[in-house]
Design goal:
Chain A has 354 residues and is of the alpha/beta class. The longest helix of chain A has 17 residues. Chain B has a five-stranded parallel sheet, with helices on both faces. In chain B, strands 11-18-12-13-14 form a five-stranded parallel sheet. The longest helix of chain B has 20 residues. In chain B, helix 4 packs parallel to helix 5. The chains are: A alpha/beta (354), B alpha/beta (340). The interface between A and B is medium-sized, with 19 and 15 residues.
């Protein structure tokens, strides 16, 4: 594999990422899946990078999942998105920072629609005005939150407490990067590195000392495809997709998987447990799973944040093998202790357990 | 004696120069490279007869040696001005020429297969183009892949950069289908044990003996043709390639491991033709190839009187078609000069 070829592709797909003053829009599902990730992002941006970022509690779901499930019509989602833009405009901001990949795709799809069909924009302006009395400007810069971490990856590297180096062997940790489909497959030019060889996560991994694994099913869906998991009878497809990826990455012996999407880390994390229960198969070392992280969690670990403060006890595939390799000290007894020291509850087998 | 300047010393340029010299005109060819023949110099042998490309190159060189026309090598046209019915031409080597007519024969460029990122050309070790393969044939080197072994399974991908929305080329490059058939047969002759698959959209066997060669490829050489376009290629840990496609005849998705992937890179108008369009003030089609006045009766006429077109600067063409188009350009130029 020739790295020069990839560098050429990466150079072809560079995007402008605003330097400061972000209006942050959260994901509607990430706080359930990986509850500390968004807070970690805000902490990094504000405390480590010293940037200005605001959010608004009146911000709602973008309704993207409903849209992709054919429940929310396009006119409706356009107006919902226009309302989010109105919140940004009212706050005096122009740079949108989006937590969710589905939302990132939705925002880009709608902005591009407005560019191609200005009459749609006018229609939505009227709808929003009539419904809420609000007005809005289209953002000047649209970045995924991962783009911002990518942009400042070297600043983070300069402040790092831990590297993506295996402390036992001294070698770079082998990391699988998984990009959410709606990050750049819809609009390759909107993603750092394009759609085929995205660089947004690879850049972080390399800057922080790790080695990126390029495996055959790298591009394949994680199993979060909306029609796979929204319909219960289709969920077998979801597990099958994840399994296909695990089987493909297994020969490379990855130390961790990192993703920039709400659903991908969730499914790649949870389905490893399911596959272990169904088939007794594990994909990591010593009968363990491969830890699956969000990029905020990975950045947080590099910066020395407490993994339990970042909510990493909520992972179904244990993250401890990665923490051990990175040389991160943690107190196993505090894994399920909340902020006030009160036990938040340990996972336990439900049902008969036979 | 009338003077004609020909821009481009490939097959079309030299063939036009030769024919115009035969009709008694004074001809100068401006060629940017050190040698004539264009991309044919990089080719091993030609479809459908497996004629060595050298044979055509030798013919062209013979014409250059034996006929009385001049060639300015390593030279490019800088400006062209028209005054009193004549063309004043300045070159990159500060030559100043006056011409009664100009023939543009700037040829084509190969599609840069890196633009089809999903196939991993110049990223994965064993993804090559049809032009790379032709060079391998030309050098006679052994064809090997990982650990110096011969490839056991080989796939060709047709229409790379042709008939493709993503690369912006909607047209057919015309020669890739038969090139694939030819190269697959050549590979099979060298590597009889190899399984060879060709992934195509349509097979356009338009020329004399093309269909017969396609049939022979299947019947005699057991080459498999699968109607389906590759969605992606990925490199495996052993450096073989996992390719994904759909067999659109059976309507089923298809996944296959191959040791070598060959991309049939299409033809594009290229920078030379774009520059000629600008310096000559003649228009291009949406495809980037030069616009002809009439595709039936005036396929050698540009929009500018006195500027003629020859060969694949007007559209993708085979070597055979290029030679014929060049000869017809010479006839048109001669006719036009005699009536002016």
């Amino acid at each position: 594999m020739y790295r020069e070829g990839k560098i050429q592709v990466w150079q072809d797909y560079q995007k402008e990422i605003a330097d400061n003053h972000y209006f942050y829009v959260r994901s509607c599902i990430r706080q359930n899946f990986f509850p500390g990730s968004e807070q970690t992002f805000l902490k990094i941006v504000r405390t480590e990078l010293g940037k200005d970022i605001v959010e608004n509690p009146h911000h709602t779901t973008c309704s993207g999942i409903g849209y992709h499930a054919d429940i929310v019509p396009f006119d409706t989602i356009q107006t919902i998105v226009a309302r989010q833009f109105a919140l940004m405009t009212e706050a005096g901001y122009h740079n949108l920072a989006i937590s969710c990949i589905t939302s990132f795709g939705i925002y880009n799809e709608i902005i591009e629609t407005w560019k191609e069909f200005p009459s749609e924009l006018e229609k939505v302006r009227n709808c929003l005005k009539r419904a809420t009395g609000r007005e809005f400007e289209v953002p000047l810069n649209v970045a995924h939150a991962g783009d911002i971490i990518y942009k400042f990856r070297e600043n983070i590297a300069a402040r790092k407490k831990f590297s993506l180096i295996n402390q036992h062997t001294g070698k770079p940790l082998k990391i699988v990067e998984h990009i959410g489909c709606h990050y750049s497959k819809m609009f390759p030019s909107k993603g750092v590195g394009g759609a085929e060889f995205p660089y947004v996560l690879a850049g972080m991994i390399e800057s922080w000392g790790g080695e990126v694994i390029d495996y055959p099913e790298r591009r394949h869906c994680c199993g979060f495809g909306f029609r796979q998991y929204l319909v219960m009878s289709n969920r077998g497809y979801s597990v099958s997709n994840s399994r296909k990826k695990f089987e493909s990455m297994e020969p490379y012996k990855p130390d961790a998987i990192v993703s920039n999407c709400p659903g991908c880390p969730m499914f790649m994390d949870r389905w490893q447990y399911v596959i272990e229960e169904m088939e007794g198969k594990t994909y990591g070392e010593n009968g363990q799973g491969i830890p699956v992280l969000t990029y905020e969690e990975l950045a947080g670990l590099v910066l020395g944040y407490n993994p339990w403060d970042m909510g990493m006890q909520m992972h179904q595939t244990n993250v401890e093998p990665l923490l051990d390799k990175m040389g991160i000290h943690y107190d196993p007894d505090l894994k399920y202790a909340g902020k006030d020291g009160k036990l938040i509850g340990k996972p336990m087998m439900t049902g008969c357990g036979c | 004696m009338k003077h004609i300047v020909i821009i481009g010393g490939g097959i079309a340029g030299i063939e036009t120069a030769s024919a115009l010299t035969d009709t008694g005109h004074w001809v100068t060819v401006i060629e940017k490279e050190a040698q004539v023949g264009g991309k044919l110099n990089n080719w091993s042998c030609l479809f459908p007869t497996f004629t060595p490309a050298e044979k055509i190159i030798d013919e062209l060189q013979d014409k250059c040696r034996n006929k009385d026309f001049s060639i300015l090598n390593k030279t490019e046209v800088r400006t062209i001005h028209r005054q009193n019915g004549k063309f004043s031409i300045e070159t990159s080597n500060d030559h100043k020429l006056e011409a009664d007519a100009i023939v543009v024969a700037t040829g084509y460029e190969l599609f840069d297969a890196r633009r089809k990122e999903e196939y991993g050309y110049k990223i994965y070790d064993h993804v090559i183009t049809s032009a790379d393969l032709e060079e391998l044939f030309k050098t006679g080197n052994d064809i090997t892949v990982a650990e110096g072994k011969h490839p056991k399974r080989i796939a060709f991908v047709h229409c790379v950069g042709s008939r493709d929305e993503k690369s912006g080329n909607h047209y057919c490059s015309k020669v890739c289908c038969i090139t694939s058939v030819k190269q697959a047969i050549e590979l099979k002759k060298r590597l009889p044990e190899a399984e060879i698959y060709c992934f195509y959209m349509d097979l356009r066997m338009y020329g004399k003996h093309f269909e017969e060669l396609y049939r022979e490829a299947q019947e005699k050489y057991d080459i498999q043709f699968i109607r389906g376009r590759l969605s992606e290629a990925s490199e495996k840990i052993n450096k073989s390639l996992l390719i994904k496609s759909e067999d659109t005849l059976s309507g089923r998705p298809l996944k296959m491991n191959v040791d070598l992937l060959i991309l049939l890179a299409g033809m594009e108008a290229g920078k030379g033709t774009a520059a000629a369009s600008e310096t000559c003030g003649i228009g291009c089609e949406e495809s980037g190839f030069l616009k002809t006045t009439d595709s039936f009766l005036k396929s050698n006429f540009s929009e500018q009187e006195g500027i003629f077109l020859a060969g694949s600067c007007t559209a993708p063409m085979s070597v055979n078609d290029t030679i014929l188009h060049a000869r017809s350009a010479a006839m048109e130029v001669n006719g036009w000069l005699r009536s002016h």
